[in-house]
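INTERNAL AUDIT FORM
Audit reference: QA-55
Scope: verify that the stored structure record matches its stored sequence.
Auditor: D.O.
Record contents follow.
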Amino acid sequence: MQATPATWRLLTTVGWQAPKGFKILCGGEALSLNLTEQLWKKGSTLWNLYGPTETTIWSIIMEINSLKSCSIGRPIANTYIYILDKNYNPVPIGMSGEIYIGGAGVARGYLNHPQLTAEKFIANPFASIDKHPRLYKTGDLGRYLPNGNIEYLNSIDINKLRVYLQKTLPEYMVPWMYQVYNTFPKTDNNKIDRKQLQMQDTKLVSVESDIKLPSTQLEKQVASIWEDVLGIKIRSINDNFFALGGHSLTAAQLISRMRTNLKIEIPLKLIFDSPTISQLISNLELKTRN
């Protein structure tokens, strides 16, 4: 059965049980590790899928055999994936770039929309390799992992929005999770229909931080406290406390734990001003020097 993560999450919430030999196909939005773990408990085969309508839906797939990551895997047959910089050059393994899709599934363009077609469907600079004339420009960021799998990061459009919001809002008020809608449902009075809005299956996009594991003793100690307070595994010292589910109450718990475990006294405002482990420690070291 194929459905979006939002639908699978709803099914797990109401106690749905998978029949024997059931195969779960999950696509349309990012698959979280938390949902992966819940679906795994059903004892079913789980596949993560990625691909837009413009490339005949699914272009990259992966059977999830580990809870360590939720990469989108590798391209299906007759499909080519390129991760490129702004000059259409392939980026090194591990570096992020825009995902471009080539191959037999790429559409010719948008009917009666030549300008949009020219923007999203570009001449294939690698046509000598895959023998197809066009690439589809997805607008999504991704990167190749050392094992050859592809990791989806987030939407480039979301990054542009974050840059704007960061100029106008305090860091802790800038969203780290976005819901993407193609259109807004309207009422008869031409107002947004909020009930219909909540019922739509949409693409949930998170903004990934640069992954940098805790390395110093203090970074590891602070990361351990974060994990206890938030109840999750910290992937990077650049992860945002509030993006991981933190709020003013858990921030107060964090301050208490740091006071007890590390003998460090910090004001609540510092957590909001420095919401990552990296920023927090940098500010603490600066205060110590001063």
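Auditor finding: record pair retrieved intact. The chain has a mean pLDDT of 85.
Action required: none
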